[in-house]
Here is the input.
Amino acid sequence: MPLTDYQRRLAEHRIMFDHPLAPDLDEGLRRASLACAENGKKETDLIELFCALYLHYQREVSDHFIGDFRSLLSRTFPKHRYGDEGLIPDAMLEKITTDDEAGGFVYSVKHTDEVLRLLWLATALANGVGKRTSLKDVLAALTQDRRWTNELSRHGLTLAHKVANFELDIGTVVFHGDAHMNAAWPRRLEFQHDEALKPPFTLEVKTPSGGFQPVRTAQIKLNGKKVAEIAWPAAAMASAVVELDASNRIELELDGPTFGSIEFTIRGTSEALN
Here is the structure.
Protein backbone atom coordinates (compact mmCIF):
# COMPACT_ATOMS: atom_id res chain seq x y z
CA MET A 1 0.00 0.00 0.00
CA PRO A 2 1.45 3.43 -0.96
CA LEU A 3 2.36 5.79 1.85
CA THR A 4 0.24 8.87 2.38
CA ASP A 5 1.85 12.31 2.08
CA TYR A 6 1.88 12.65 5.87
CA GLN A 7 3.43 9.21 6.39
CA ARG A 8 6.15 9.98 3.86
CA ARG A 9 6.75 13.40 5.41
CA LEU A 10 7.24 11.87 8.87
CA ALA A 11 9.56 9.17 7.50
CA GLU A 12 11.74 11.79 5.77
CA HIS A 13 11.74 13.89 8.96
CA ARG A 14 12.90 10.93 11.08
CA ILE A 15 15.75 10.15 8.68
CA MET A 16 16.95 13.75 8.47
CA PHE A 17 16.62 14.85 12.08
CA ASP A 18 16.62 11.77 14.34
CA HIS A 19 19.93 10.52 12.89
CA PRO A 20 19.17 6.77 12.76
CA LEU A 21 21.88 6.21 10.12
CA ALA A 22 25.60 5.90 10.70
CA PRO A 23 27.45 9.00 9.37
CA ASP A 24 28.87 7.27 6.28
CA LEU A 25 25.48 5.90 5.26
CA ASP A 26 23.87 9.27 5.89
CA GLU A 27 26.43 10.80 3.52
CA GLY A 28 25.64 8.14 0.92
CA LEU A 29 21.95 8.98 1.14
CA ARG A 30 22.67 12.69 0.71
CA ARG A 31 24.88 11.87 -2.26
CA ALA A 32 21.91 10.03 -3.83
CA SER A 33 19.61 13.04 -3.42
CA LEU A 34 22.21 15.39 -4.89
CA ALA A 35 22.92 13.09 -7.84
CA CYS A 36 19.17 12.83 -8.52
CA ALA A 37 18.83 16.62 -8.48
CA GLU A 38 21.78 17.13 -10.82
CA ASN A 39 20.41 14.51 -13.23
CA GLY A 40 16.85 15.78 -13.27
CA LYS A 41 15.31 12.98 -11.18
CA LYS A 42 12.55 13.98 -8.78
CA GLU A 43 13.12 11.27 -6.16
CA THR A 44 15.56 8.58 -5.08
CA ASP A 45 14.41 5.07 -5.99
CA LEU A 46 16.22 1.76 -5.36
CA ILE A 47 18.43 2.01 -8.45
CA GLU A 48 19.41 5.59 -7.70
CA LEU A 49 20.15 4.67 -4.09
CA PHE A 50 22.45 1.77 -4.96
CA CYS A 51 24.24 3.74 -7.68
CA ALA A 52 24.92 6.45 -5.09
CA LEU A 53 26.08 3.86 -2.56
CA TYR A 54 28.42 2.50 -5.22
CA LEU A 55 29.85 6.00 -5.66
CA HIS A 56 30.31 6.24 -1.90
CA TYR A 57 31.42 2.67 -1.09
CA GLN A 58 32.78 1.44 -4.40
CA ARG A 59 34.75 -1.58 -3.15
CA GLU A 60 32.30 -2.62 -0.42
CA VAL A 61 29.26 -2.54 -2.71
CA SER A 62 31.12 -4.30 -5.53
CA ASP A 63 31.86 -7.19 -3.18
CA HIS A 64 28.15 -7.92 -2.77
CA PHE A 65 26.85 -7.72 -6.34
CA ILE A 66 27.54 -9.31 -9.69
CA GLY A 67 27.01 -7.00 -12.65
CA ASP A 68 28.34 -4.00 -14.52
CA PHE A 69 27.91 -1.26 -11.92
CA ARG A 70 29.81 1.31 -13.96
CA SER A 71 27.52 0.88 -16.95
CA LEU A 72 24.41 1.12 -14.75
CA LEU A 73 25.88 4.18 -13.05
CA SER A 74 26.45 5.92 -16.38
CA ARG A 75 22.87 5.20 -17.46
CA THR A 76 21.33 6.25 -14.14
CA PHE A 77 23.53 9.24 -13.37
CA PRO A 78 25.19 10.48 -16.58
CA LYS A 79 26.52 13.28 -14.39
CA HIS A 80 28.30 11.86 -11.33
CA ARG A 81 31.40 12.33 -9.20
CA TYR A 82 33.37 9.92 -7.03
CA GLY A 83 34.98 10.89 -3.73
CA ASP A 84 34.24 13.91 -1.58
CA GLU A 85 33.36 16.03 -4.61
CA GLY A 86 30.22 13.94 -5.04
CA LEU A 87 28.89 15.40 -1.78
CA ILE A 88 29.25 18.99 -2.99
CA PRO A 89 26.83 20.45 -5.55
CA ASP A 90 28.45 20.98 -8.91
CA ALA A 91 27.24 24.59 -8.91
CA MET A 92 29.20 25.22 -5.71
CA LEU A 93 32.32 23.54 -7.12
CA GLU A 94 32.17 25.89 -10.09
CA LYS A 95 31.91 28.88 -7.76
CA ILE A 96 34.97 27.68 -5.85
CA THR A 97 37.07 27.43 -9.01
CA THR A 98 35.98 30.89 -10.18
CA ASP A 99 36.16 32.58 -6.73
CA ASP A 100 32.47 33.41 -7.06
CA GLU A 101 31.00 33.74 -3.55
CA ALA A 102 27.50 34.73 -4.60
CA GLY A 103 24.40 32.59 -4.03
CA GLY A 104 24.00 28.96 -3.01
CA PHE A 105 22.45 25.72 -4.17
CA VAL A 106 19.27 24.05 -2.92
CA TYR A 107 18.01 20.58 -3.84
CA SER A 108 15.09 18.51 -2.60
CA VAL A 109 15.37 15.30 -0.58
CA LYS A 110 12.66 12.83 -1.54
CA HIS A 111 12.69 9.03 -1.46
CA THR A 112 10.26 6.53 -2.94
CA ASP A 113 8.12 4.40 -0.65
CA GLU A 114 10.32 1.36 -1.37
CA VAL A 115 13.50 3.16 -0.38
CA LEU A 116 11.87 4.34 2.85
CA ARG A 117 10.70 0.79 3.61
CA LEU A 118 14.19 -0.54 2.90
CA LEU A 119 15.80 2.03 5.20
CA TRP A 120 13.29 1.23 7.95
CA LEU A 121 13.96 -2.49 7.74
CA ALA A 122 17.71 -1.86 7.73
CA THR A 123 17.31 0.33 10.80
CA ALA A 124 15.25 -2.37 12.54
CA LEU A 125 18.06 -4.88 11.93
CA ALA A 126 20.63 -2.43 13.30
CA ASN A 127 18.51 -1.48 16.31
CA GLY A 128 18.11 -5.16 17.16
CA VAL A 129 21.81 -5.33 17.99
CA GLY A 130 21.99 -1.85 19.51
CA LYS A 131 23.64 0.20 16.78
CA ARG A 132 22.95 2.76 14.08
CA THR A 133 22.19 1.70 10.53
CA SER A 134 25.20 0.86 8.34
CA LEU A 135 25.72 -0.12 4.72
CA LYS A 136 25.75 -3.80 5.69
CA ASP A 137 22.35 -3.40 7.35
CA VAL A 138 20.96 -1.96 4.11
CA LEU A 139 22.47 -4.83 2.12
CA ALA A 140 21.02 -7.38 4.55
CA ALA A 141 17.60 -5.72 4.48
CA LEU A 142 17.61 -5.72 0.67
CA THR A 143 17.74 -9.53 0.59
CA GLN A 144 14.54 -9.85 2.65
CA ASP A 145 12.17 -8.75 -0.11
CA ARG A 146 12.22 -10.36 -3.55
CA ARG A 147 10.66 -7.24 -5.07
CA TRP A 148 13.82 -5.33 -4.22
CA THR A 149 16.27 -7.96 -5.46
CA ASN A 150 14.17 -8.46 -8.60
CA GLU A 151 14.27 -4.73 -9.28
CA LEU A 152 18.07 -4.71 -9.13
CA SER A 153 18.17 -7.88 -11.23
CA ARG A 154 16.15 -6.16 -13.96
CA HIS A 155 18.93 -3.59 -14.10
CA GLY A 156 21.67 -6.21 -14.34
CA LEU A 157 22.70 -6.58 -10.68
CA THR A 158 22.43 -9.87 -8.80
CA LEU A 159 23.56 -10.80 -5.30
CA ALA A 160 27.06 -12.23 -5.11
CA HIS A 161 26.24 -14.45 -2.11
CA LYS A 162 23.59 -17.11 -1.58
CA VAL A 163 21.06 -15.93 0.95
CA ALA A 164 19.26 -18.30 3.32
CA ASN A 165 15.49 -18.33 2.87
CA PHE A 166 13.49 -20.63 5.12
CA GLU A 167 10.42 -20.86 2.87
CA LEU A 168 12.56 -21.60 -0.18
CA ASP A 169 15.20 -23.77 1.49
CA ILE A 170 12.95 -25.74 3.86
CA GLY A 171 9.33 -24.99 3.01
CA THR A 172 9.59 -26.52 -0.48
CA VAL A 173 10.82 -29.95 0.71
CA VAL A 174 8.49 -32.87 -0.08
CA PHE A 175 10.98 -35.56 1.00
CA HIS A 176 14.53 -35.69 2.32
CA GLY A 177 16.74 -38.61 3.21
CA ASP A 178 20.30 -39.79 3.39
CA ALA A 179 21.99 -43.15 3.13
CA HIS A 180 25.31 -44.67 4.20
CA MET A 181 27.33 -47.60 2.96
CA ASN A 182 26.73 -49.50 6.21
CA ALA A 183 24.80 -52.65 5.21
CA ALA A 184 22.20 -51.97 7.90
CA TRP A 185 21.19 -48.73 6.22
CA PRO A 186 18.02 -49.15 4.10
CA ARG A 187 18.32 -48.99 0.33
CA ARG A 188 14.59 -48.61 -0.16
CA LEU A 189 12.52 -45.77 1.29
CA GLU A 190 8.86 -44.90 0.96
CA PHE A 191 7.06 -41.61 1.47
CA GLN A 192 3.64 -40.07 0.93
CA HIS A 193 2.84 -36.94 -1.03
CA ASP A 194 -0.22 -35.04 0.23
CA GLU A 195 -0.22 -32.47 -2.60
CA ALA A 196 0.39 -29.55 -0.24
CA LEU A 197 3.31 -28.71 -2.54
CA LYS A 198 2.68 -28.55 -6.25
CA PRO A 199 4.68 -29.56 -9.35
CA PRO A 200 7.13 -29.21 -10.88
CA PHE A 201 9.02 -31.54 -8.54
CA THR A 202 12.81 -31.66 -8.56
CA LEU A 203 15.10 -34.35 -7.18
CA GLU A 204 18.45 -33.08 -5.86
CA VAL A 205 21.20 -35.60 -5.09
CA LYS A 206 24.70 -35.02 -3.73
CA THR A 207 27.56 -36.91 -2.12
CA PRO A 208 28.78 -36.90 0.57
CA SER A 209 26.18 -36.11 3.21
CA GLY A 210 27.50 -33.99 6.05
CA GLY A 211 30.99 -34.86 7.22
CA PHE A 212 31.11 -38.40 5.87
CA GLN A 213 33.03 -39.73 2.85
CA PRO A 214 31.57 -39.63 -0.66
CA VAL A 215 30.23 -42.74 -2.32
CA ARG A 216 31.96 -43.67 -5.60
CA THR A 217 28.79 -44.24 -7.61
CA ALA A 218 25.07 -44.04 -6.94
CA GLN A 219 21.94 -44.73 -8.94
CA ILE A 220 18.55 -43.50 -7.76
CA LYS A 221 15.22 -44.95 -8.87
CA LEU A 222 11.86 -43.35 -8.15
CA ASN A 223 8.80 -45.59 -8.47
CA GLY A 224 10.82 -48.10 -10.49
CA LYS A 225 12.29 -45.59 -12.93
CA LYS A 226 15.94 -44.48 -12.89
CA VAL A 227 15.91 -40.72 -12.36
CA ALA A 228 19.50 -39.78 -11.41
CA GLU A 229 23.02 -41.10 -11.01
CA ILE A 230 26.25 -39.64 -9.69
CA ALA A 231 29.92 -40.63 -9.78
CA TRP A 232 32.53 -39.11 -7.49
CA PRO A 233 34.32 -36.79 -8.12
CA ALA A 234 33.35 -35.89 -11.71
CA ALA A 235 29.61 -35.79 -11.04
CA ALA A 236 29.11 -35.38 -7.29
CA MET A 237 25.69 -33.73 -7.69
CA ALA A 238 22.68 -34.28 -9.90
CA SER A 239 19.28 -32.70 -10.39
CA ALA A 240 16.25 -33.99 -12.27
CA VAL A 241 12.59 -33.10 -12.74
CA VAL A 242 10.45 -36.00 -11.43
CA GLU A 243 6.81 -37.02 -11.13
CA LEU A 244 5.21 -38.05 -7.83
CA ASP A 245 2.31 -40.30 -6.90
CA ALA A 246 0.34 -40.27 -3.67
CA SER A 247 2.65 -43.09 -2.45
CA ASN A 248 6.26 -43.15 -3.65
CA ARG A 249 9.26 -45.47 -3.44
CA ILE A 250 12.96 -44.57 -3.71
CA GLU A 251 15.52 -47.31 -4.41
CA LEU A 252 19.28 -46.85 -4.18
CA GLU A 253 22.22 -48.69 -5.70
CA LEU A 254 25.44 -47.57 -4.00
CA ASP A 255 29.14 -48.36 -4.23
CA GLY A 256 31.76 -46.76 -2.05
CA PRO A 257 33.92 -46.87 1.09
CA THR A 258 32.68 -48.03 4.48
CA PHE A 259 31.86 -44.51 5.64
CA GLY A 260 30.52 -43.31 2.28
CA SER A 261 27.26 -41.34 2.25
CA ILE A 262 24.76 -39.65 -0.02
CA GLU A 263 21.75 -37.37 0.48
CA PHE A 264 18.71 -36.68 -1.65
CA THR A 265 15.89 -34.15 -1.53
CA ILE A 266 12.70 -33.79 -3.53
CA ARG A 267 11.29 -30.27 -3.74
CA GLY A 268 7.97 -28.92 -4.93
CA THR A 269 6.51 -25.49 -5.44
CA SER A 270 4.93 -23.59 -2.58
CA GLU A 271 2.00 -21.30 -3.35
CA ALA A 272 3.35 -18.95 -0.67
CA LEU A 273 6.35 -18.23 -2.93
CA ASN A 274 4.25 -17.37 -5.99
Q: What stands out?
A: The first helix runs from residue 5 to 17. The chain is about 35% helix and 25% strand.
